[in-house]
Design brief:
Elements: H1 2-21, H2 31-37, H3 40-54, E1 55-56, E2 59-60, H4 67-80, H5 85-101
Antiparallel strand pairs: 1-2
Helix pairs in contact: 4-5
Length: about 100
């Protein structure tokens, strides 16, 4: 059942994107819709990372004992300084692992 669900979701995702990519299908979006859709990726990513970082066991965890917040803060600060993405990933990941081990 799980495999069938994954395959169906993959097929739905592929087909919804294929409709806009295939040159023989005359489906085009106007500029306002394209502009509106440009906000969907940041919105979805925010909906994914906010609960991971700020919620522990169903409650809001805003303390310096939360390794997720510390590692995320370091990643944001490094990204704000326009540091190499690989350096950000390795540094914040290593910091997170070190904090979880302590």
């Amino acid at each position: 059942m799980t495999l069938m669900t994954i395959l169906l979701m993959a097929m739905i995702t592929f087909l919804t994107r294929y409709l806009f990519i295939h040159p023989k299908i005359p489906l085009r979006l106007n500029a306002k819709v394209v502009s509106f859709l440009s906000f969907s990726a940041p919105a979805v990513l925010t909906a994914i990372w906010v609960p991971i970082i700020f919620i522990r066991e169903g409650t809001l965890a805003l303390s310096l004992n939360n390794p997720y917040i510390i590692a995320a803060t370091v990643a944001v600060l490094l990204a704000a300084k326009k540091v190499n993405i690989y350096f950000i990933l390795i540094t914040s990941g290593a910091l997170f692992i070190a904090l979880k081990m302590l």
